[in-house]
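name: query_chain
kind: protein
chains: 1
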Amino acid sequence: MRRGSVGSARALVAVVIWGASFAATKRLLEEVAPATVLFGRTALATVVIAAAVALRSGLRPIPARDWPRLIGLAVVGLVLTPLLQAWALELSTSANTAWLVALNPVVTVVLAAALLGERLAGKAAGLAVAFAGAVLVVTGGSSLGPPSTRGDLLTVVSTVTWALYTVYGRHFISGHDPPLVTVHLLGIAGLAYLPGFVAGAGWRELGTLSAGGWGCLVYLGVGCSGLGLMLYYAALEHLEASQAAAFIYVEPLIAQALAVVALGEPLTVGVVAGGAAILTGVFLVSRSENPAQSDLDRRPPAALSSGRAGRWLSTPTSRARSRRGPPARTSGPSSTSTGR
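structure:
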């Protein structure tokens, strides 16, 4: 399978998992405070993913020189973004939050071009079509105005922090093992959430949590914070940041579908047309000129192996083949290691 296809498949699965997180979080917030939700899901994900990494390849600390960048990455992507969206869900609807998150790729394209020098050629049309679809679903054809609630404004701000996380993380991942990075990020985020959990006596809320609430918490911790995050990291080894971010457009489509099935909300013509445009835009972006070859020329030899994330998600036979990796290319300058 082509590298771009592998990356696209992983990104798609990740955002489908994340798409259901809006309904799960909204349901969980009916029983517990945001601090309890965020600490609980992060702590659960840390334990599960750390155990999996220990069984597969062994836990080890990331070099000390990378910790400042690792902490910055965790704060931006795994602390600020979920915190903003949890607050948003308390003040707005899950549908509004989900559809506003679809604005993320627009911000990511700008940041990726400015910070990583990624090309916009071949992607602008797909992004425009997908964005137009999101606007159609949200507004029903009327013009898009400012956020109508404080919750919507918080969601818009979260698209900026997630875009920074995507750009920052894609550069960082070229020199590290994605599952190992995931464990470190989750651990840092859990420590950041701990003071709020303690201050709010979150353990008491967990003690009274219903079976449905625990189901939502497990899904958020293992599925969204664990598996979804690792798949997204794996996708970033095969896609440019703006290409991976384009799949975020699928999130609100999944969230809207769950609203129809689980909550009985009507499915309008605007949603159908907008959803079709979103998927069309994602397809156009994903089939744009695959940057793998030209990007490989710019990456350091250590990143040329057929994928640390690939070895995590592949069979033993494919992992054995991947260790040989393609020959290192030295025709172009290596990328700058700044470190998602």
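note: The chain is about 70% helix and 0% strand.
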